[in-house]
Fold this sequence. Notes:
The structure is a homodimer.
Chain A (H helix, E strand, L loop, with lengths): L34 H19 L3 H42 L2 E3 L7 H7 L14 E3 H6 L5 H29 L8 H8 L10 H16 L7 H16 L3 H4 L2 H20 L2 H12 L5 H21 L23 H31 L6 H16 L3 H4 L2 H9 L33 H24 L9 H25 L4 H4 L11 H17 L3 H11 L5 H18 L4 H9 L16 H4 L12 E2 L3 E2 H10 L4 E5 L7 E6 H14 L8 E3 L15 E2 L4 E2 L4 E3 L4 H11 L3 E6 L2 E7 H11 L11
Parallel strand pairs in A: 3-5, 7-8, 10-11
Antiparallel strand pairs in A: 1-2, 4-7, 5-6, 6-9, 11-12
Amino acid sequence: MVNAGDMNGSGNLMDFLDEPFPDVGTYEDFHTIDWLREKSRDTDRHRKITSKSKESIWEFIKSLLDAWSGWVVMLLIGLMAGTLAGVIDLAVDWMTDLKEGVCLSAFWYSHEQCCWTSSETTFNDRDKCPQWQKWSELLVGQSEGASAYILNYFLYIMWALCFAFLAVSLVRVFAPYACGSGIPEIKTILSGFIIRGYLGKWTLLIKTVTLVLVVSSGLSLGKEGPLVHVACCCGNFFSSLFSKYSKNEGKRREVLSAAAAAGVSVAFGAPIGGVLFSLEEVSYYFPLKTLWRSFFAALVAAFTLRSINPFGNSRLVLFYVEYHTPWYMAELFPFILLGVFGGLWGTLFIRCNIAWCRRRKTTRLGKYPVLEVIVITAITAIIAYPNPYTRRSTSELISELFNDCGALESSQLCDYINDPNMTRPVDDIPDRPAGPGVYTAMWQLALALVFKIVITIFTFGMKIPSGLFIPSMAVGAIAGRMVGIGVEQLAYHHHDWIIFRNWCRPGADCVTPGLYAMVGAAACLGGVTRMTVSLVVIMFELTGGLEYIVPLMAAAVTSKWVADAFGKEGIYEAHIHLNGYPFLDVKDEFTHRTLATDVMRPRRGEAPLSVLTQDSMTVEDVETLIKETDYNGFPVVVSKDSERLIGFAQRRELILAIKNARQRQDGVVSNSIVYFTEDPPELPPNSPHPLKLRRILNLSPFTVTDHTPMETVVDIFRKLGLRQCLVTRSGRLLGIITKKDVLRHMAQMANQDPESIMFN
Amino acid sequence: MVNAGDMNGSGNLMDFLDEPFPDVGTYEDFHTIDWLREKSRDTDRHRKITSKSKESIWEFIKSLLDAWSGWVVMLLIGLMAGTLAGVIDLAVDWMTDLKEGVCLSAFWYSHEQCCWTSSETTFNDRDKCPQWQKWSELLVGQSEGASAYILNYFLYIMWALCFAFLAVSLVRVFAPYACGSGIPEIKTILSGFIIRGYLGKWTLLIKTVTLVLVVSSGLSLGKEGPLVHVACCCGNFFSSLFSKYSKNEGKRREVLSAAAAAGVSVAFGAPIGGVLFSLEEVSYYFPLKTLWRSFFAALVAAFTLRSINPFGNSRLVLFYVEYHTPWYMAELFPFILLGVFGGLWGTLFIRCNIAWCRRRKTTRLGKYPVLEVIVITAITAIIAYPNPYTRRSTSELISELFNDCGALESSQLCDYINDPNMTRPVDDIPDRPAGPGVYTAMWQLALALVFKIVITIFTFGMKIPSGLFIPSMAVGAIAGRMVGIGVEQLAYHHHDWIIFRNWCRPGADCVTPGLYAMVGAAACLGGVTRMTVSLVVIMFELTGGLEYIVPLMAAAVTSKWVADAFGKEGIYEAHIHLNGYPFLDVKDEFTHRTLATDVMRPRRGEAPLSVLTQDSMTVEDVETLIKETDYNGFPVVVSKDSERLIGFAQRRELILAIKNARQRQDGVVSNSIVYFTEDPPELPPNSPHPLKLRRILNLSPFTVTDHTPMETVVDIFRKLGLRQCLVTRSGRLLGIITKKDVLRHMAQMANQDPESIMFN
């Protein structure tokens, strides 16, 4: 049977303009909102303001302010999201370096800032300056040697543990909702679910602080996903300042969609990509008005971040790149291979991560979240330190992998053997044979790849803020760079092979390993999240050239196809299912041939549907019905015999109305008749005073016939955002279908456990 | 009353799997499709293929091909749209130059190609080479002097008239649908309307050819809008090759949405902007799957065009620019002024153009389309030739106006007085005082602006292909460049003013007039079309820098607000209304407090609704009903007394079923009873054979109660794409609301003539 929460349906809006009871129009925690109802309420509000605005100048100004509040909220969200992202970037930069050493001239400087301000830095050794001291130098005066190494190693682990412990404790004590990436929950919230406190001020504060801590601790996680959550918290905060948004759950979700766009915009420095991400991946109801405002919020956020300039290069992200050489058709083959790798990694990651998270949920493991974080952090730090590619922050690693080897590059990855006879412009260096540094780097990258793959599976889902974009991109970038170097060396040493002969003559700069890293990153990210357009656009905004869209697109398409072949769910959908949220995915196609009659309650053999009659029940009858059931509403019919539907009454409003009447209205007693009709008949003089409840009756409940294909019903639920729908046959009420029933039925049809849908 | 065409509702899908009659599932011309039904039919098709694919390997391969056909269609559309755009660009280039002269070395070369291939061209005088001869040189051997000028002038006008006459004749004789920009009609078609032949092969061919002719004739129109129509014709052509798309009007529209994106992609060299344009402006039903495929089609089209390289600079459009200097906050003021100008121009243009088009429609003027084109072409050519800024093609004009004045620029607009003591890098030239050329240019530009504004109003809407993007952008670019030069000179001569002091020291390159031209173009385009996100993204893709998004956005927002203050409709919506197409705009908010009962038919005092009863009407009764009415379908009720709704039968299917039964089934005569029930009762032995029609009955017609607010009804019609909806009260059938009723009601509420909605 349906239970409370399923049926808090659309109120009769015409009668509710002056909201007679205080709590009308709010929803309970972990319940679904009714989109149609929210929309109607907003239209009513709008009508009221418009008609009032003609009364006086003050009201007219108020109506203008109301019309502008949407843009104001967007501006505020953009400013705050950009500022927070900048602060997080700066703090992470500093704290990541703190694990290795400290700046003597000013302890709040990161390594780079410290040496940047130092006058003794030469261009070739930008990373070395006397002001920056490793811990071993500061404490025992040694910077080289085994004991210094061990001391640094030990302090690195200690700092990491310290950060991680602080983070997990803060999350546990102050804001349990601050953990994870937040994107699955935000998707669910945007689809119309209520999770109180998930976007609250505490969550915002704690998530921001702990995000800095966990990213600095060196765990295999990113800040990009959580930044979306942080931006949505900002959105929720600012929308609570304007009654237009705070009192309407539908309108509030428009703001949150825009906030999500702003979050991605600052996370990747990609305003257009952010809007498309919000549209494609996160949002549920995305009207065109919101598109335009989201774009505005995303731009404001991006420009705020740029004026903070956290990386000192007036770029929004660390891993912005510009390539100088084109790609060739023959390279599509390795790009597609990277796509296959990305798809396989996505499948592997989702399967393993979900299995591990399920284990955490169901076994005793879940009882020790702090210990789990400590153990994983310790393992990560111990393994990561010896390898230079895992010791540094993951963003820096990605940035180095994406980079093209210029003439001035001092990195190990650019240790090629130069031809002394060749003089060429700085940016157009021909392919060269790899030097020993590159071979070392290859080994270290291979180890880093295995490590990242394994540790990320265990890291994502712990009780700390953790994003998936950066680790996924790192896995892909490592694999891509390795493939890229391989192809480059192959082309250099075998430039007479038929596939290379056309485009890779000796002395030409034909293979860009950095581009392979970027393609690999896109493929892996696509495999895990199943993003498509937004992924390509984000990557396009990172490279800034239309030129490289085709490789990115080839990899993204391949990766999605390969991953989809093993399972349709992306990581976010998988986590939504794991948590049993009532999320009706727009992307799932329902193709079964069931009818409404197969899904509606009551089923055959179950007790009949609890209904109210329009003019034959007493107050006591109604109270008994309310007491004995926990449904959120009751259909009202002409009489038990005819079963012709006339409307729908909500439990909450029934209770309030009866309570109200008993207190205030004289003569309403337990055996008063309850009338839902327009004009109650004249009663004999000594009969009790009737209770007229027509004004709480929703006269336009949504109905379908019992023969309606479920496909259509699912479509209606999705597009109109219904909570429930009544089922009739030739005008007779037969049953009811709630959103939960629909989700359960869909789970059943997909051979999943229908009981996995937990909320209403 | 509702008439035929309103009610061709959703068939009973369960019974129609094997489509018993040939014509079932098609729609008549100028009728609206039922989206829910199309979707169900596609799901059925898909189910059939999936179940068959398990039977044999051949069927499995066929199912794979079917799954891939979507991508194949996209690839083909991209290739064809890109190729056509390239061919059009090349042909326009050649024919525009043909008006002035001819290339002696090869007559099919345009002026630029001719001199490019010539060895005698010097860098400073790229436009002069002996191979290229003006007509006067060729015919009378003179290139200078009054008589040569007059000869060239005369031939210019003759060529223009010749091109225009050819174009309008071709359109009139072969493809009347090829005229106009096509975007209003495509919007209507995508929203579910049928206009047979509008996207046909003839239209494609004639539109492509005449587009070249009219653009070359020098009329004030562009090829960008018509290119969307051309791309959609390609989409329609390729979708007719695959039964998945050709037999399903809903699926076909998905392809057309993607084709529209490809069209904009090649028109502006902006693949992402194209997809957003299709999403924001053109499409009605745009699932995420289509987003991804549209992106693919747009990319393929862009790369095809680039490999054709029509402009010889590996850019997709003529007016691609790169700016070298940033903009300053104080410049936002002129940018916003340009936005205001754009909004005013948009309003002026829409009002005047619609008034003129209405006049053409209602007076005798409309009877002489050929003469009209000839007259307008003659006027355009006569006025345009003496002014160098109107003589050349509008794209070239825009390109020059957008351009920043580099050191090597020889154009009149870049005739600044150079400081001989100053040596600076090529791209970073300080602001300089304007020379005489600039002053001349300002006068000529002012005249060109007035001319363009007036002539465009009369040009758009003639019976030739005509796009609006380019003329609108030209108006804005001229205004913008003039403002830009003004600000530049102001800043140069008054650099001690407080607003300039901070950012415009002497010797600094602080004002870029080209950027003002671009901002002005965006503002004017926004004012006319009311595009928002897609406009900014298209412009962003033209400049290639995130830097200039803020000015563009400021102008676009201002322009939209200003224009919206005078009237909400963009030019495309205005033309849709003018033509009376049944287009239910997603962007219009319906905020009135009417109820379903106010809109449904029959109204009070009208004849009762024509209904069928489930078991008491004879074949003759039904035939009489069909003959006497022209409704597209009839509700079926239990009995005339109870009026309880059981389903909906379509006129077309009723006629076919009765005809069929009379021919094939023995014993069905005029007084046979028609049964819509599941099990007809046993009849007395000598009564005529009954006719069972349950299988043509749609058992799940869409219903709402009479108290449903129209706001909700409009939402349902929009989101579910219904054709009609039945109105009930307590299970009794009261009336019917069709899409046309909804549109009429909306027109009435907006104080427009409800009879302006002409089609069903």
